[in-house]
């Protein structure tokens, strides 16, 4: 399970600069994870996680395998995309396939870099994308409602329930609300899933800030959120400077730390972006730690032990017997499994156990 994030936004806002910084970062990381370029628009990067490094230092495994995040550079956002304008249709199809959308908008001014609509206005850029996604969703909903007509005439009760749900969603979307901000019951979400509505996707806005006004970033974020509190309630706003990320990508690790410190930052904007996306999707990490491999696995926040085991292999889920769990902190404090066990920190958990972020787990199963 790798989280896939689609980078979208109008032309000339810094998407490629950001994407290149991301993939360079991965190449520089020299991780043990087999990095393959599937396609020039796809980059797989490690999820930054200090705990994994610490576990590896302790266990000294043959391999270290971090959790990964896949970024897809999706070009082609222009007003009119929903009508198939430009690469419009392909653009929207690509968006359907990602888990989350990172909408990059521009807040830097640079006389040498033309802005497509003439003025730097990040809120306007966000509205353009949202409108395109909403228009496409309306088209999908109208189609679906028309397809239901026959079943409604035949008095199919499920069709009637679906019809009233789709009508309600349509009205909300027409009024400018994204599906992600409409309160839905579990059953309603399940009914909507197959329509793959675009405004239902998790989205975060990446604000490409001016490298010359970094000290004003906090104020600027506050100002934008205050201008549209309802928009940013369901869409986190993440500031980043694509230019600085690009510069960082050319430095070695020590130089990066020094440069970041000189700017007053503790971590790279890219690392914060990856973490925010993880949190937005309700994902957490657990670890397996043995002599062959120390590895981070990605799961949903509410996953039970058998579901977590299923991420490693479906056999683990089917044949699940129990999980031996040590928190990461205990594993490190007591220098590994044996020490933690002697200290009474190893728990035997059954199939109802909800895995916590950072658990170090060994599964017992029977296949
Ligand atoms: P894209 O069309 O969104 O992929 O934008 P690019 O990444 O190709 O950037 C367009 C132009 O803006 C390039 O000349 C970049 O060097 C420049 N650019 C991108 N990010 C920044 C930034 O943060 N600050 C400044 N000053 N220029 C930037």
Give an overview in words:
The chain is of the alpha/beta class and 367 residues long. Mean pLDDT is 88; it is low at 28-38. The strands form 3 sheets. A 6-stranded mixed sheet has the order 2-4-1-5-6-7, with helices on both faces. The chain contains 15 helices and 12 strands. The longest helix is centred in the middle third of the chain and has 32 residues, at 122-153. Bound molecules: guanosine-5'-diphosphate. Guanosine-5'-diphosphate is lined by residues 9, 11-17, 108, 110, 113, 208, 211, 241-243.
List the helices and strands and how they pair.
Layout: E1 3-8, H1 15-29, E2 42-46, H2 50-59, E3 63-65, E4 68-73, H3 88-96, E5 100-106, H4 122-153, H5 157-174, H6 186-193, E6 202-208, H7 217-227, H8 229-233, E7 237-240, H9 242-248, H10 253-263, H11 269-280, E8 283-289, E9 293-300, H12 305-312, H13 314-318, E10 320-327, H14 328-333, H15 337-342, E11 347-349, E12 359-365
Helix pairs in contact: 1-9, 4-5
Bound molecules: guanosine-5'-diphosphate.
Q: What would you call the shape?
A: flat
- Secondary-structure element pattern, one letter each: EHEHEEHEHHHEHHEHHHEEHHEHHEE
**What compounds are bound to the protein?**
guanosine-5'-diphosphate
Structural class call reads: alpha/beta
- Please give the count of helices: 15
Strand content: 15-25%
Can you summarize the main beta sheet? 6 strands, mixed
Strand order of the largest sheet: 2-4-1-5-6-7
Radius of gyration: 23 Å
**Intertermini distance:** 22 Å
């Amino acid at each position: 399970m790798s989280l896939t994030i689609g980078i979208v936004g109008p032309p000339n806002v810094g998407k490629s600069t950001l994407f290149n910084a991301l993939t360079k970062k991965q190449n520089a990381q020299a991780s043990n994870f087999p990095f393959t370029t599937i396609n020039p628009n796809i980059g797989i990067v490690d999820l930054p996680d200090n705990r994994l490094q610490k576990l590896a230092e302790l266990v000294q495994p043959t391999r270290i395998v971090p959790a990964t995040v896949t970024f897809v550079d999706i070009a082609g956002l222009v007003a009119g995309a929903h009508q198939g304008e430009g690469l419009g249709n392909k653009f929207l199809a690509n968006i359907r396939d990602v888990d989350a959308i990172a909408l990059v908008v521009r807040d830097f001014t640079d006389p040498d870099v033309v802005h497509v609509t003439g003025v730097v206005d990040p809120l306007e850029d966000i509205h353009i994308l949202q409108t395109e996604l909403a228009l496409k969703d309306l088209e999908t909903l109208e189609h679906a409602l028309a397809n239901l007509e026959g079943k409604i005439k035949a008095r199919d009760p499920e069709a009637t329930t679906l019809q009233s749900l789709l009508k309600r969603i349509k009205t909300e979307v027409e009024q400018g609300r994204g599906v992600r901000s409409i309160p839905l019951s579990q059953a309603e979400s399940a009914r909507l899933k197959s329509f793959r509505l675009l405004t239902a996707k998790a989205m975060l806005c990446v604000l490409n800030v001016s490298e010359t006004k970094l000290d004003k970033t906090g104020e600027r974020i506050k100002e934008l959120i205050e201008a549209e509190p309802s928009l940013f309630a369901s869409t986190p706003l993440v500031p980043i400077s694509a230019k600085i990320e690009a510069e960082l990508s050319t430095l070695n690790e020590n130089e990066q730390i020094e440069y970041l410190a000189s700017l007053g930052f503790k971590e790279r904007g890219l690392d914060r972006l990856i973490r925010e996306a993880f949190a937005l999707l309700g994902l957490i990490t657990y670890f397996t730690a043995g002599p062959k491999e120390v590895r981070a696995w990605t799961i949903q926040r509410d996953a039970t032990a058998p579901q977590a085991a299923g991420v490693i292999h479906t056999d683990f889920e089917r044949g699940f017997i129990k999980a031996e769990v040590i928190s990461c902190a205990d594993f490190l404090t007591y220098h590994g499994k044996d020490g933690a066990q002697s200290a009474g920190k190893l728990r035997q958990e059954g199939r109802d156990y909800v895995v916590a972020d950072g658990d170090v787990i060994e599964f017992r199963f029977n296949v």
